[in-house]
Amino acid sequence: MVTLNYKLLPTLLNGPLFINQTFVIQIKGAGFNYRIVYKRLYLHLKNIKTMIPSKLAQNLRGSEIIKIAGEINELKRQGQNIANLTIGDFDSNIYPIPADLKAGIIDAYNANQTNYPPADGVLSLRESVSDFITKEYKLDYKPNQILISGGSRPLIYATYLALVDPGDKVVFPAPSWNNNHYCDLLTAKPVIVQTLPENNFMPTAAELRPHVKGATLLALCSPLNPTGTMFTKKDLEEICDLVIEENASRTPAEKPLYILYDQIYSQLTFGVHKHYDPVTLRPELKDYVVFVDGSSKCFAATGVRVGWGFGPADIINNMKAIVGHMGAWSPKAEQVAMAAYLKDAASVTSFLNGFKARIQASLQALYNGFMELKAEGFAVDAIEPMGAIYLTVKIDYSGKTTPDGTLIKNSADVNFYLIKEAGCALVPFSAFGTDESENWFRASVGASTLEEIEAMIPRIKTALAKL
């Protein structure tokens, strides 16, 4: 058998073809062994085709986080113990979902709540969400202004599809999560605004102002994935005023500038840090803001797949059709259980208090560890924990040489060095749109215990001391 490199063949072949490539054929039998070398091979081929994916599929960028995960899995396969601070998820053995929610899901399945849900979500859940956001945020959205989907990700994509046409400008900060990929899917024009560590990597009105003219969508997130930092009241007010000013300058024939406001981590805020939203600060923006929220992060329920979005009824109605065509509904049993759980305010409060305390303790331990390393003279830094499950850390070792003589060129090299030498995996901000020369990283604490986090600091110290 001869194996050919398909790249040597044209897309469609018919008839004779000469291939100028060396082929070796080994023929063995009783009493003989022939090795035949061909320098030029004559083939007669008929209807040989290679797979050609769509231009969209060809141009989609892969995930840096998946690449890192592959490296981690290979080292784990070799027996190495890796503290995985990469994934924006929870180890469900460390952080299980609320017991009452789990029991409710089981009960719903036992009650055969297994058929299709309504396209916009089970009414009882939309009513519970309406009550929940009124209680938690003092926001007034009726059930017809609320859409349920299988997690928050379909809601973000549906917002893009409902508001953005090919070629439209979408403005978003870097670092941020996945906005570049949604722009790719829609062939929208991404306008990426680089942010600064002195502003906790949150965008400011001054940074956004040069870019909002003619834009259709401004995508914001607070607390922010990947940084775990948050808008101050003043900074968000100034951005809101910028959007109001921009919309006032547009004619009725022009699209307005909308805000996509991802607040999936809004229940996970720590200390003095408070969550703010555009509609509370500027009620006149209510017709121009689509909120994305859900249960995934605040209840450690990433696999339960219950997200909710809310906003202007006409936009939500269009998003409902889009989510329906994608089939991105949340499972009905989970919706029924979530509806009942959200109504139990005492259970929700009890869970959140305990859950937040544990997340905060892990973030604080990691922050304290990096501050101790900084005090000892290591080229590291961190931003205090504010919200979400992430800590922003700086490990500024580009240009250094490893003990085996390898030059560390950028943040990706820093990360893979720490994976191998310290058994600690982070995500460089370059995976979220910043330049690889910026040695800032996301550290996610959801998949590690407090003890594991405390134990990794000495390993990081030992690894960095070798550089």
Automatic annotation (TrEMBL):
One of its GO terms (molecular function) is transaminase activity. Keywords: Aminotransferase, Pyridoxal phosphate, Transferase. InterPro entries: Aminotransferase_I/II_large (IPR004839), AspAT/PAT-like (IPR050596), PyrdxlP-dep_Trfase (IPR015424), PyrdxlP-dep_Trfase_major (IPR015421), PyrdxlP-dep_Trfase_small (IPR015422). It comes from the Bacteria. Residues 82-460 form the Aminotransferase class I/classII large domain. One of its GO terms (biological process) is amino acid metabolic process. The keyword Transferase applies. Its cofactor is pyridoxal 5'-phosphate. Belongs to the class-I pyridoxal-phosphate-dependent aminotransferase family. PANTHER family: ASPARTATE AMINOTRANSFERASE. This is Aspartate aminotransferase. It comes from Mucilaginibacter gracilis.
